[in-house]
Amino acid sequence: MNIPAVINPVLLTNFTNNVSNMQTIINNLQTKVNSVNSCAELNALKNMLESTVMAEFSAIQTKIEGYFNDQNAEITKSLNGLSPLLVSPGNLGEVISWINNMINNIKAPYENILALQAQILIQQALFIAQIGALASSISSLQSSISVKSSTLKCGF
């Protein structure tokens, strides 16, 4: 069976860094929104949010989802190695082979799969929280732009 041993820590660190960088960008935009004094400046920030920030947010989400989908697909694929155990043995020699296959194809790989699934669930929970925090920050920034637009009477 081909079972991934562990989650790729470098890739996960890159995801975490991407999320952190996005939060910094959003915080900087928030600071700029708070200090603008013209509709033109505010509109430029609004456009940056709508194009650059939202595209990057979507790209990060897509990368994270793709990574975890690949991990789960690998686990599912590895379970295909259990298919020989679904055939009933026909004679005593096949019973012994079947028992050996059961021991070899279930015990060790199953333990690896459970450990990997636990890692995946922990990482997914972490990224769900991080993506949720980013989405909340983006929403807050959108509200700030709207309020500032009203204050400056920009009409958008």
Brief summary:
The protein has 3 helices and no strands. The chain has 156 residues and is mainly alpha-helical.
Please give a handful of descriptors for the protein shown.
3 helices; mainly alpha; 83% helix; 156 residues; rod-shaped
Structure description:
- This protein has 3 helices and no strands.
- With 156 residues, the chain is mainly alpha-helical.
- Helix 1 packs antiparallel against helix 2, helix 1 packs parallel to helix 3 (92-152) and helix 2 packs antiparallel against helix 3.
- The longest helix is centred in the last third of the chain and has 61 residues, at 92-152.
- The model has no long low-confidence stretch (mean pLDDT 87).
What is the mean predicted local confidence, pLDDT? Answer: 87
- The tally of structural domains comes to 1
Element-level helix/strand string: HHH
Radius of gyration (Å): 25 Å
Instruction: Indicate the proportion of strand residues.
Output: under 5%
What is the assembly state of the chains in this entry? single chain
What fraction, in percent, of the residue positions are helical?
A: over 70%
Q: What overall geometry do the principal axes of the alpha carbons give?
A: rod-shaped
Biggest sheet overview: none
Ranges where pLDDT stays below 50 over 5 or more residues in a row are none
Q: How many H/I helical runs?
A: 3
Number of strands: 0
Q: Tell me the distance between the termini.
A: 58 Å
